[in-house]
Amino acid sequence: MTAPGRRSSTFTRLLRHGFTDPSAAERLLDAPELAPVRDDPVLLEALGATADPDLALHGLVRLLEAQSGRDLLDTVIAAKPLRDRLLGVLGASAALAEHLARHADDWRALVTYEPRDLHPGVAEFERGLAEATDPVSLRVAYRRCLLSIAARDVCGTTDVAESAAELADLATATLRAALALAGAAAPDDAAACRLAVIAMGKCGGHELNYVSDVDVIFVGEAAEGVDETKALRAATKLASHMMRICSETTVEGSIWPVDANLRPEGRNGPLVRTLSSHLAYYQRWAKTWEFQALLKARPVAGDLALGEEYVAALEPLVWKAAERENFVADVQKMRRRVIENIPLAEVDRQLKLGPGGLRDVEFAVQLLQLVHGRADASLRSGSTLEALKALAAGGYVARADFAQLDAAYRFLRSMEHRIQLFRLRRTHLVPEDEADLRRIGRSLGLRSDPVAELNREWRRHSSVVRRLHEKLFYRPLLDAVAQLAPGEVRLSSEAARERLVALGYADPAAALRHLEALASGVTRKAAIQRTLLPVLLGWFADSADPDAGLLNFRKVSDALGKTPWYLRLLRDEGAAAENLARVLSAGRLAPDLLMRAPEAVALLGDGDGGGLTPRPRAHLEQEILAAVNRADGAAQAVTAARGVRRRELFRTAAADIVGSYGTGARPAEADQGALVDRVGGAVSDLTAATLAGTLRAVVREGWGDTLPTRFAVIGMGRFGGHELGYGSDADVLFVHEPRDGVEEQEASRAANRVVSEMRRLLQIPSADPPLLIDADLRPEGKSGPLVRTLKSYEAYYRRWSLGWESQALLRAEPVAGDEDLGRRFVELIDPLRYPKAGLTDDAVREIRRLKARMETERLPRGADPKLHTKLGPGGLSDVEWTVQLLQLRHGATLPGLRTTRTRAALSAAAAADLIPAQDAATLDEAWVLATRVRNAVMLVRGRAGDTFPSDTRELAAVGRYLGYGPGHVGDMLDDYRRTARRARAVVDELFYTG
Length: 994
Hints:
By secondary structure, the protein is mostly helical. The chain contains 44 helices and ten strands.
């Protein structure tokens, strides 16, 4: 007897053998059924070797309780093969332990250990199911066969690929048995038709899980002398009955669901079609994913000759799928849809569909099969592992990548098997419970610290898959052009071309030339490029213009290749390479800005380059004014200021592109309004700082420190509203005021000379983009003087000001020059733009008349009004005029409306109940979208535009910037029209009738 407070020796031994609840185990060992072997070290050793000793012992006791004699116990102790198999299953699967407890003699299926039992095939499993006469007995026989598969699996007799193949063979035998039962129940139907069952998915690929839907397609033909309609009706009854036999729950549970949704037209299509009907569908209507699914098609039951005819008829279509017009876009769409449909809470635990999961490997292998299987029949395997091996043997996948992916896929599939085996439930989620993780880890041979080791190995293999699954496509391309290892199997030129075309490259010959120039040779630079390019090529291919991305990368690399920091930045800085790839392939503007000074690549890194955060206006002015003060003359000073502007425009554009596309580390910015505000604020601040520097440079050169007249620049339009786009001119007014003792004529000459020189210097052709100054909003427009004194403005506005000018002044804000003069100009115009009495009815009618005339007269000929972002219905003009009418009417009494910014004024109007919140949201959404489209057009085309591009690639690039994946350009245009239409309805209500 053990002294109180002291643990028994058995308790200690149980702990040492891996039991987590030794007290419960001691009680089980004291059960009468185990009394004869309670202290037998052989039993404890065997239990301790299982995945879960506690579970194994509990299952053994239950099984012994169901026995009528001692045969089982004696055999367990005497026969090591049975002991290992039985206890291995009991320690890994609570569901199979439950089956054994209900069917006390099924343990005998594990006794035989003949060579033919080691790798059974369909014939052996058919014999195992032969005695089944109804759905219930079929389930019992199925589980009995499953016992032997699980026993070989957990004991290591078979590896994961062999176990998956055995499961597929058992599924084949089960489908045949179920179809035979269905035929026996309806012999007339069976006689009226020929019915073939085609396995798809993992069953077709000979790589099934323990618990999985078994995907099938049915092909039917009429028996000789039978009407086709009648035969198809009979075949449909047989197929439906077969599915029910496998899927329905009985007292013995279910086997697995049979899923026929991969058939033509999915659930909406007939369950059974003739071969000719299948062929017609795939020739005319099938989508890319349907051909991808057919990679695994395999006849398994019913009329196998008909099944072989089906496969032979469709095979040529499968291997032509990569030639389809939308192949690349379809493939990218499919992958995105899979990832997007995973619930957020499950992403990190998804073994199959999450990043770095099984689907990544399967998807990549299938894509390469479709691309290269046309010319190489050795790649036409339904098995992922066999296909991956064939791809490596043919040089389509680098051998090192193959080795890592093969190991990772085997580990992840083994995890999936162990997770499903426990309760025989269909799941791909890694459990969170520590006991579950411990059992899985131990079952995979991780015994020191099973939970920590399992998590570490899982994350390591997932990381390998995540890192390699994109490189898989591109590394062989580099091997093909670099040719560094003699004797290594490589892609042929034709295979490399096919792969680039399949991945979206329009000019594969040029792409291969660029790759050869970048990656050939034995220099350190070429070696780093070979490391970077597989990943970069994937990012380029994810854009609307991969060719431009690769060409631009070559140009930047040629310009910076000899600098020591460039390739090091891309290799070592986490975000730099992906940011660069996004920027270089998103359109013309950002690459053009970068090519003029490639060292701006440093901004894309994580380090001290300033990153992509827009710099505050004060910092910009400080840098520009410092450069102006150092310069020798106004021309050199303004050149320096324009250089800063070019660099900062690149920073803003790059941040906008990266924020819109998203990266692996950071998803795309969800708040579209925030992106618009960031660009508008950054470009407006940069323009103001550039004008301030240019003004300082001109004054210094002509007059030294002090101009004879005080001088201020007033921002107007989008500039004053902090809403400039990449292609916007700077709308301004110039105001001056003679200093004490200076004649007005002299002051006016000086002010006009300043304006003329500023405009000239900012437009001189150079490597930097010009900054166009537009002063057409001044009094009297183009007919009036460029510069006026403050008193002249006062006199004009008092006597001659028109309604449109008061409206234009709503956006007026000082941006450069004498701050006091700017403040006094604002004080002068406030009564005009925020009239105390509001607007008269005549003034409102005049504004409406002007707006209507502008809509009819200014829209470019041939433009689609519904897609014109500025003047079209629901466009920028509609929203801005509506907001400005509210400001003119109520600005005097509502301080919140006294802002130059459209969105801020709209928000203030809603807060003051001048406009319903929903209407405000509708207008805001339309204004933000129209602004985003204009920014996108400038980024993509490199020149400003108010409507969507007509070029297909440019239109696709605009779509990608706006968050629309490949193939969704039509959705983008529909969404724009819908958004603008809703906004126009609000404008009609508020502006024209409100």
